[in-house]
Amino acid sequence: MIKIIDYGIGNIQAFLNVYKRLGISADVARSVDDIESATHLVLPGVGAFDQAMALFNDSGLREGIEKRVFEERIPIIGICVGMQMLATSSEEGKHVWFRLDSWSGSHIQQQYRFKKSSNATYGME
Q1: 89: Cβ–Cβ under 8 A, 6 or more apart, which residues?
Q2: Start and end of every Glutamine amidotransferase domain (predicted)?
């Protein structure tokens, strides 16, 4: 079952709603025991990198996630700041997260220029 990691930040209910609408079984992981039954993990996040890392490190979930992802090789996806947390480092904060064997990268702060398109939506250049 897909488990959405609840470490005190993120839009957990939005993920549950999407999976329910798609007919996919998903639940929330708030403890290491919850993570044990996961087939896939979703690491959501909203906000600043340092705040997210501090909450995550205080959650007690890190060791269980590392075991499942690195030793048992279950898939994990990070969304928004959750993806930044999967990188080796981030320019946005001072914390260092996982060092993934198969994927390594850094979150680099960038400034984007937005342009108005002809259909009244906005896009990045």
Answers
A1: 96, 97, 106, 107
A2: 4-92
Helix (H, G, I), strand (E, B) or coil at 64: helix
Domains within the chain, CATH numbers bracketed: 2-124 (3.40.50.880)
Q: Are 77 and 110 in contact (CB under 8 A)?
A: no
Helix, strand, coil percentages for the chain (3-state, nearest 5): 35, 20, 45
For 49-60, letters b (16+ CB in 10 Å) and e give bebbbbebeebe
pLDDT digits (tens, 9 = 90+) for 23-71: 999 999 999 999 999 999 999 988 888 888 889 889 999 889 989 998 8
Residues 7 and 55: beta-carbon distance below 8 Å: yes
Residue type, 75: P
Please name the amino acid found at residue 45.
G
pLDDT tens per residue, range 113-123: 444 555 444 44
